[in-house]
Amino acid sequence: MITEQKRILIVEDEVKIAKALTEGLKAEGYIAVPAFNGEEALFYLANDFFDLMILDVMLPGRSGIEIAQLIREKNNKIPILMLTARDSIEDRVIGLDNGADDYLTKPFAFAELLARIRVLLKRIKTENIVKLFFSNLEMDLLARVVKRSGKIIELTLREFEVLEYLLRHQNEVVSREMLARDVWKETSRFSPIDNVIDVHMARLRKKIDHGFSDQLITTIRGVGFGLKDSSVKS
Ligand code: CA
Questions:
Q1: From the CA of 142, how far away is ligand 1's center (Å)?
Q2: Is pLDDT of 192 > 60?
Q3: Which residues of 54-93 are buried (b: 16+ CB within 10 A; e: fewer)?
Q4: Are strands 137-140 and 151-153 parallel, antiparallel or unpaired?
Q5: Interacting residues of 146 by C-beta distance below 8 A, sequence separation 6+
Q6: How much distance in Å is there from the Cα of 37 to the middle of ligand 1?
Q7: Could you tell me the distance, in angstroms and rounded to a whole number, from the CA of residue 36 to the centre of ligand 1?
Q8: Which of 31, 81, 154, 178 lies most in the core, judged by the most C-beta atoms within 10 Å?
Q9: Spacing, Cα 174 to ligand 1 middle (Å)
Q10: Which domains does the chain show, CATH number per domain?
Q11: What residues sit around ligand 1, an ion, with C-beta below 5 angstroms?
């Protein structure tokens, strides 16, 4: 039995299969969400949290392999269980090379899918990330310690949360709306906290970047914030 409900995204364009998987996983106690193409899947991933993703290779538009690649490029570590066509060894190899954690050949027994899901979820649990890195910045999530070039930086709880968010979204631009929603848990759009965010960001930047020649925390005018490693040429 599952104690905490795990969220599974199912990416499959064949409606019948998608429906069957969704219903079957729900019956097993999972929260299952179907997406019928890659674009939809990327949208769900950007806006919601999932513990695991079942990804069909054969999709209209971008293939499952391309979608897996895109997800890994964004540094998203979500476990991916890929569904491949029968006898297509090539798909399996390409899939595993491009970020899939496991694969299952169609047609498959539902019991086998459940077994693979359990294995992947367990593996992730033991591999839980305890440290986040960017350039010479290091965050230990267990010890709650932040270091830059080995030197400890004292942060307030909120500053720590903001920096953790930036580190977890290090290849994206983080908007004030994202910070308001995900860090401040501010759900009302009628109480703008942009000023509060800016003040925290200014303090955080001072603590992180003061005394260093390269500035890691950057402001993208009119959009938000991001981490930038100027020692890496893009
Ligand atoms: Ca398909």
A1: 41
A2: yes
A3: bbbbbbeeebbbebbbbbeebebebbbbbbbeeebeebbe
A4: unpaired
A5: 137, 138, 139, 140, 152, 153, 155, 160, 163, 208
A6: 9
A7: 9
A8: 81
A9: 33
A10: 7-126 (3.40.50.2300), 131-227 (1.10.10.10)
A11: 13, 56, 58
Residues 108-138 pLDDT 10s: 999 999 999 999 998 766 566 688 999 999 9
Percent of the chain surpassing pLDDT 90: 61
Provide the token pair at 113: 């899918």
**pTM score above 0.85:** no
User: Cα torsion at 215, 147, 132, 122 (round to 10°)?
Assistant: -170
What is the full DSSP assignment across 105-126?
ESS--HHHHHHHHHHHHHHHHH
Identity at 74, one-letter amino acid code: K
Rounded distance from Cα 193 to ligand 1 centre (Å): 44
Q: Distance, CA 46 to ligand 1 centroid (Å)?
A: 22
In the DSSP assignment, the letter for residue 185 is: -
How much distance in Å is there from the Cα of 16 to the middle of ligand 1?
11
User: What is the distance between the alpha carbons of residues 56 and 45, in angstroms, rounded to a whole number?
Assistant: 16
